[in-house]
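Incident log, structure service

09:12 report received: a user says their structure output differs between two submissions of the same chain.
09:20 pulled the input from the user's history:
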Amino acid sequence: MATLTVGQGQQFGTIASAIAASHDGDTIAVQAGTYVNDFAKINVALSPETGDVWLRTGPIKVTLDGGSTGALFTRPYAIKPDFHGVQVTSTEVLKEISELANQNNWRMSVHCNGDKAFDILLDTWEAVNKKKSIVGKRWTVEHGKNIRPEQIRRVKALGLLVTIQAAPYVKGETYMTNFGRETAEQSSPTRDYLKSGIILAGGSDWLTNPLNPFLHMYFAVARKTKAGNLLGQNQALTPAEALAMHTKYAAYVTFEENSKGTLAPGKLADLAVLSHDPLEIATEQIKDIKVLMTLVGGEVVYQREAD
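09:34 re-ran on a clean worker, output below:
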């Protein structure tokens, strides 16, 4: 296995070479070193969707604000009245990257948590959209935890997707302390997004959140933290909606719905055999589901040992 470390300022030709090499049967692991700011180099070295079903380029990712201790809000933090959060990437840089991505047909994916960050993101992308439409290109908001109703309408108008995780499952108490109970209750407003016709996809956000997808599904349905506190029960999803987030719509985000995300003739034979049906068991049992077997390309690659 060849391992590449990508550092700040490093030429992206090495990544292009890695992807090309993967076509010859080599396995390539790309490890991010430091945050890479010069996104223009990506456009020189690679074209969108370079690669194959095993390894390919995806969207350009930008972190706009912080998370449980730094999400950017219009109102002050409950724990610190003179603090509104952190803007990680400047508005000017976000605009420059977004325009470059749109001109070169790259998708964008932006980490955005607080309502002030949403103001910045939506203002920027609406301006970019006026020059060249981004509607239908599946640009994505990562996390999208704290959003105002009128902002949801703007997300819908731009055709944006939202990938959402169960961060409140492990950080809900931190949200309550930092943001206040009312804001914490409505963090990750999954029901509001779905009611507005916005496509939601699930994910782990590993390493900062649990890798186990069933914990994410559990929170989406139960709206209960690891410590047992209920947060925003009005935002709860059905088990079927939570399952679709992590399968069907996860594939949709990356334009792979015709090859994966659901089990159907002609699609990839990639699937997992579970200990329980998440659509049939009690909500509290969802988090305890185990994977008994995993198949990739129709071949068994994992099998759980008997307890």
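09:41 both user submissions now match this output. Likely a transient worker issue. Closing.
09:42 reviewer note: The first helix runs from residue 13 to 22. The chain has one domain: 40-263.
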